């Protein structure tokens, strides 16, 4: 097992993350007031962000999760998307907000947008904690962005390396 050393200073502190999540929750709440909103968290990485975000949105909403695989245990995307968990909630006529931890190459998010837009949802939009455009290979629109970052391989607050470091409350760049 590789023992990787985290830097002592986070790229995003716990306080910065929580403040921004509250702001995103307010924006989303205003945007979707009076509508039927479903948050679809993308597992595994977005489970912490989705949990915090749903509590910051002052609306009656539904929450479910999807699971896609594109990275596996590697640090780079395989480029192949496989949906291994569909939502249990009927999305017909509802507004869907895909919630992702990080949009990096854009491949997964573009695939998810296309997949759910082709269904019976009234509208499909996206929210990501981190929009990291340095490795973007697929054009993708992100409607709600927590932070724009262009540096490093990030871990913590749900982000992982080979399923490790998700439990960190801040976000670090892994060397």
Instruction: Let me know the largest β-sheet.
Output: 6 strands, mixed
Low confidence ranges: none
CATH architecture assignment: 3-Layer(aba) Sandwich
What characteristic shape results from the CA principal axes?
Answer: globular
* Share of residues in helices: 10-25%
Cofactor: Mg(2+)
EC number: 2.4.2.8
Family: Belongs to the purine/pyrimidine phosphoribosyltransferase family.
Pathway: Purine metabolism; IMP biosynthesis via salvage pathway; IMP from hypoxanthine: step 1/1
Could you explain the architecture of this structure?
The protein has 175 residues and is of the alpha/beta class. The chain has one domain (37-174): Rossmann fold, CATH 3.40.50.2020. The protein has helices spanning 14-31, 47-56, 107-117; strands at residues 37-43, 62-69, 82-85, 95-103, 123-131, 144-148, 153-155, 172-174. It has a 6-stranded mixed β-sheet, with helices on both faces. A two-stranded antiparallel ribbon has the order 7-8. Strand 4, helix 3 and strand 5 form a beta-alpha-beta unit. Helix 1 (14-31) crosses helix 2.
Task: Give the SSE map.
Layout: H1 14-31, E1 37-43, H2 47-56, E2 62-69, E3 82-85, E4 95-103, H3 107-117, E5 123-131, E6 144-148, E7 153-155, E8 172-174
Parallel strand pairs: 1-2, 1-4, 4-5, 5-6
Antiparallel strand pairs: 2-3, 7-8
Helix pairs in contact: 1-2
Briefly summarize what is shown.
22% of the residues lie in helices and 27% in strands. The chain has 175 residues and is α/β, with parallel strands linked by helices. A 6-stranded mixed β-sheet has the order 3-2-1-4-5-6, sandwiched between helices. Strands 7-8 form a two-stranded antiparallel sheet.
